[in-house]
Specification:
Blueprint lengths: L2 H12 L5 E17 L2 E19 L2 E7 L5 H15 L13 E4 L12 H16 L4 E19 L4 E19 L2 E11 L3
Parallel strand pairs: 4-6
Antiparallel strand pairs: 1-2, 1-5, 2-3, 5-6, 6-7
Helix pairs in contact: 1-2
Length: about 190
């Protein structure tokens, strides 16, 4: 758990006067490979960061989304200001227990430790098996993996820091024998291996 991030998020929440505030943050790093037939259509890595603040103040709800953590305090203030503009009668929230937890990813063979070159080489083999099969006219192969790091914090003291790894692969082939056409596909998914 990143204590500096927790301190930063909790300080932003405590910096304003509101009935309730929650902050969601998600960061993802991914790789993606896609073939159509033997042609490589897409290969690459990506990353993203985003989040939101939801605030209840003055009887109204405010919401702000962001993709940069550099001014989290301002985003929290903005959500509270929006809530106060909306206004309304006081809202009573249900009481829920405070939860503080760190949930690490359950990872077997971490795809982040496998190079994009090695992932492509494995998929090249699948493409050759499918396209080298008698009668197969076309095939598609797609692979994606993503490591996500998510944080949830609220003004009632809950703080959950969770990571997970999602892996997906899709295989599809279309075969023809004269006028008879058949298609088959397989989709595989895993949380962490």
């Amino acid at each position: 758990m990143d204590e500096r991030m927790r301190d930063r998020v909790e300080a932003a929440i405590k910096s304003v006067d509101a009935q309730y505030i929650e902050v969601h943050i998600e960061e993802a790093v991914s790789s993606n490979i896609r073939y159509r037939g033997r042609e490589l259509e897409e290969i690459g890595r990506g990353n993203g960061l985003g989040g939101s603040v939801r605030a209840l103040a003055g009887g109204g709800w405010g919401f702000v989304s962001f993709n940069d953590l550099s001014d989290l305090d301002a985003k929290v203030r903005m959500a509270v200001a929006q809530a106060k503009v909306v206004g309304g009668e006081r809202i009573e929230l249900a009481e829920v227990p405070t939860v503080v937890d760190f949930v690490p990813a359950r990872v077997g063979l971490d795809p982040g430790g496998v190079t994009l070159t090695d992932k492509k080489a494995t998929l090249d083999q699948y493409v050759e098996i499918m396209m080298g099969t008698a009668g197969v006219q076309s095939a598609s192969v797609g692979y994606t993996d993503a490591r996500r790091h998510m944080i949830f914090a609220n003004s009632e003291g809950s703080y959950i820091d969770q990571s997970r790894v999602d892996i997906n692969m899709r295989l599809a082939a279309m075969a023809r024998d004269g006028s008879e056409v058949q298609q088959s596909g397989k989709s595989l998914g895993s949380l962490g291996d």
